Amino acid sequence: MKSVILAAGSGRRMLSVTDKPKCMLKVGEESLIRRQIRLLRGVCSPPLVVVGYRYMDVVEHVGWGIDFVMNPVWKQSNTLISLLFAIPGAPTDCLVINGDVIFKEDLLPKLLEVGRSSCAVQEVEPTDEEVKVVLDGTRVMEIGKCLACSETEAVGVYLFRKPLVKAIRDLSCRPANPWQLYYEDVLNMVLHQHFVESVATTDAVEIDTPEDYERAKEIYT
To answer: Residue 23: its pLDDT value, please?
Structure first.
């Protein structure tokens, strides 16, 4: 099994707080990315970190004991392309975490207890911002930002088993403009063929705005 942290984006809406990559934001005694690395080391091997914007800041912040891969087109692309840079070669089970998310320490073990691909979810008051899911029991039937009927958010922490990794990679070349897609857009295309189990959590925060950052600090400090 491998693990991946996606940390290539610039986080333009956080410029009033920091001009550095969002994953370096400190909540309590740790930055987001150092906390994620610590939690991933506790359940599997150290992660591969996908970098882009101000990549050397991230490398120097984390240190060279971690593997990095560069998304050289981070300005023109979205999370799908960053993920594809991280999953070449023979498919393998893969934990995937967005680098701007903070979550409870028990979440990764809960994902790994599931014998299939899994997606961390929580209840939310929906806006256009969240990646939302439609569930049938615990199975994820749809995922995306445009699901107006859903009040359940995918928090940006996933376990993709080997067949799902292959399916995402194989289908990524089919959309007309894959550069602008989130990896959840392609995941949505394969949900009818691949069972993805929802794993409930609470208090996960994806830090997109200064308000999100304040909320994360209130919960985790």
So the answer is: 97
